[in-house]
Amino acid sequence: MVRIEAMSIFTIAYRLRRRIYVVWTLLLFAVFVFLDSKNFFGKATLKREQKLRRQAMRLRSRLIRLGPTFIKVGQMLGTRADLLPIEYVDELSQLQDSVPPFANAQAMAIIETELQRPIKDLFADISQHPVASASLGQVYRARLQSGEIVAVKVQRPHLAETIAFDLDLLRGLGRFLARYPRLFPGTDWLGAIDEFERVINEEMDYRKEAANSETFKRNFRDWTGIYVPRIFHEYSSGRVLVMEFITGIKVNELEKLKAAGHSARRLNELIYRTYFKQLFEDGFFHADPHPGNLLVMRDGRLAVFDFGMVGRISEVLQRKIIAAFFHLYNRDVNGIVDDMIDLGFLKPEADVVALRGIVGDVMQRKLNLRLKEVRFKELTYDLAPVVYQHPITTPSAFTYLIRALMTLEGVSIVMNPEFNFFEVAKPYVKDFLFKRNTAQLRQMAWDSLRDAKTGRFQWGKLWTMAKMAYALYLGD
What we know:
Layout: H1 2-37, H2 45-66, H3 68-77, H4 86-92, H5 104-115, H6 119-122, E1 123-126, E2 132-133, E3 137-144, E4 149-155, H7 159-178, H8 189-204, H9 206-219, E5 226-227, E6 240-244, E7 249-250, H10 254-259, H11 264-282, E8 284-286, E9 294-296, E10 302-304, E11 310-312, H12 315-329, H13 333-342, H14 352-367, H15 376-389, H16 399-415, H17 421-434, H18 439-447, H19 459-473
Parallel strand pairs: 5-10
Antiparallel strand pairs: 1-3, 2-3, 3-4, 4-6, 7-9, 8-11, 9-10
Helix pairs in contact: 1-2, 2-3, 2-4, 7-8, 11-16, 12-13, 14-15
């Protein structure tokens, strides 16, 4: 009885300390962002950037100390140029999903509890130490009694309780901020927290990850260049996932790829083609395409795994994204600003005329360069001051899509320094318009020519698409 009471007191004290540390960390962060929005640090660019950069570095180290929930929160914030100064976005985008491993004895106990069998009955052998460790779990290499070599992913102990506590704390802070909308105009804190909760709860349930893996495998069953490892469902549960162990080369290990006879450029283009399919056809995409989740196998196939973080896109949203894709491809600045309104990035109170001029100027400067010199991340960074200072927000549905695209481009620039989104997109757009037997996709493109509010047909957009189709047909 005394021990139970002592544990209760210990737990209460721990949670109180954590609550104070979290609130203090986030309060300092919010104060700096708020003061910057009021030009407290002055207009001297170098002095302001130095102060913000130092504070962003402190925030990143504190988030790492706070553990899994806040590492994930930091990664999410690293895509939100609408919420933060670019110094924070740049620093948090480097936040790695990596923490020290937990004890092997705990991992083995979790496996036995979840699968209800002794380790010796499950595996002929298992590595003494994890081969990889991340914020939510760690991975062991093992051999089943039947002989297959497998990866055994084990969730961290007490993870669900820790994340539930942290989410409750974040939601309380979100409700507080929602009561004072003038502090951070145009920011949907609760919507962002809801999206974060959905994704992290899905990541924590390994049965959902297994189901996501099977969905992706079905979607790419006809793609000979893509491989999805086999899941051993009979050895898996909500906290343990056993899958085929894949050996290969990370897509950013250029020297190893070259020595093995693989073309980094070809692989890079293959990755992008899979994303065009995921976004425009499947409405289901891998939201964490970092190099550790993309391995090139000996025979040249690209192995894709870790489907804990996925995104889904409704047909309505797909139609809007297709319209934006065509406008971006055509450098249609007015159309892009219209898409920002239609997609919910631009608030009703925004000065649309002024924003057209500002955004148009940035886009024109960038898009008049040679195509290979245009970078999605650079464009985001150029627009960041505009986004940060005007009533523009990132709808919660786009948080993980933007994260995926920025991660993907970072990988692509390493794999292919000449990489350019437009050049890689061109064959897909041509295939989409002229060759594919995808009546639904073409109907979506046709629907995107109608005004979202009035439903009226927009002849100007039709003319723009017709010109693009003609240019593509001639191979321009």
